[in-house]
Amino acid sequence: MSERPIPLLELAITGLLAQQPRSGYDLLKVFSETAMGGFSSSPGAIYPALKRLERSGSVTGDVENRDTLRPRRVYRLTAAGVETLKRQLGRPVTRDDIVRHSDGVMLRFAFAGEVLGPHEATRILEQFAHEIECYLPELKAQLATLTEAEGRYGFFALRHGIDMYSADARWARKVIRELKGRVPPRQAKRQTVEPVRRKRSKRGGRRP
Amino acid sequence: MSERPIPLLELAITGLLAQQPRSGYDLLKVFSETAMGGFSSSPGAIYPALKRLERSGSVTGDVENRDTLRPRRVYRLTAAGVETLKRQLGRPVTRDDIVRHSDGVMLRFAFAGEVLGPHEATRILEQFAHEIECYLPELKAQLATLTEAEGRYGFFALRHGIDMYSADARWARKVIRELKGRVPPRQAKRQTVEPVRRKRSKRGGRRP
DNA sequence: AGCGTCATGTAATGTGTTACATGATTCG
DNA sequence: CGAATCATGTAACACATTACATGACGCT
What we know:
homodimer, Arc Repressor Mutant, subunit A, elongated
C-alpha cells in the first residue's frame, strides 16, 4: 500500500524545497551550516539528487539571472512533488525505521509538522515512541545475558543504546505533551511559490 | 599520519573476527540477532566485504568440513589484520565522527576495550565526550535563533539532537568513571587462534 | 513431502564519496 | 591583486540493497 521509501537525501531536499525554493548551493549551505550536517553536503551528492528529482517530476528548476554572468538554478516543488512528499511523510514508523533509519523519522516529523500539521506530526511521534518502548525491553533482556566476563565493553555499548532509546522516548513523549497543550490549528499554513527569499532557515534533527 | 577510515561494515567484521573466528553466516547472524542490527546483515554486503578483506590481507578463510557436503568457510584475522584494526581503533575522535559517524565511535570503543585495553577505550570516550561538549553550545546557540514563527518543528527536532548529544556525553562520562573505578589491567587478554567455538556474543552499540 | 534453517554466493542497480574542473564576484 | 566565497557541475570508484540462485540437512 504505502510507497517505498525514497533516499533520505531526496526526502530532505524535498522537504526543504517545500519550505521555500532553493538552489543547489543553498541546499549545500543548509547541510553544511545547520544541524542537518548528517547529510552529505557535497555537490557530488546534491546536484545529481536534484537532477533525479527533476527527472521524476518532483521538482522544477528555473534559471534565475539568465542574463547576468552568474546564473542560479532555483528549484521548487511541483504539485506531484508535494504529493510524493506527503506520501513519504505518511508512511508508518516501523521497527526498522528506529533501528536503522532513525534520522529519517526525525526528518519526517519536522516536515510533517509543517506540511501536514500537528496532528500528523503527533502520530509520527506516537508511533516512534511506541516502537521504542516495545524495543527497549528486548535490549534490556539482552543486557541481562551479558556477563562481566563475556564482553564488558559490549555491555557498556549496549547500555549506550538503551540510554539513547530512552532519551528518544522521553523526548517524544514530552513533545507530544507540548503539542497537545497548544491549540492545534489542524492544518499548517501552506507555502506557495513566493518569489525566492534568500533566507536560511536553520533546522534540526540529528545526523538526519 | 593516521590511516583513513575503512567502511564501518569492514570495521565491524574485523572487530568481531578479533574476538573469534567466524563464518560469513555467523556474522550474518550476529548482525541480525543482536543489537548490532544497524548493519546490513544481508549476504550481498557481508560476503563481498569478507572477500575484500581477504584480498587486502586482513583475514584468511579456511574451509572447514571440506570432506562433508556442507563446507563452511571460517575466517580469522591475520597479523596484518590485527595491525589494521589497531590503527583504526587508534584514530582520534573528530567532530565529523560524532556528527556523521557516531555509530563508528561506539564500535571503536567496544573493540578498543577488548583489543587494546581500558586505557585506549577511556581515551576514545574522553575524546568523544569532549567533542560533544564543544558541539553542544553551538547547537544551543542555533536553538536560540529559532523563533516560534520560523520553524516550530525544526525547534523540536533540534532539541532532539541536543537531548541525544547530552545523553551521549552523560553516558560517556559515567563509563569513564566506572572504568576508572576498577583496576585497569592495562592490556586485555589476547585472543589467539582457538579452534572455533560456536558461541554468539551479543554486543551493543546503537545502529552501528 | 514440504518447510525452515544452514550456508554460500552472484548480478543489477542505485547512490554516496572523493576528487577534480571551471569561472565570476567580493572583500581586504 | 590574491583569497575566500558564490555557483555549478562531472567522472571514477566504492559500497549497499535487492533480488535471485543453489543445495544439504533436520524435523514433522
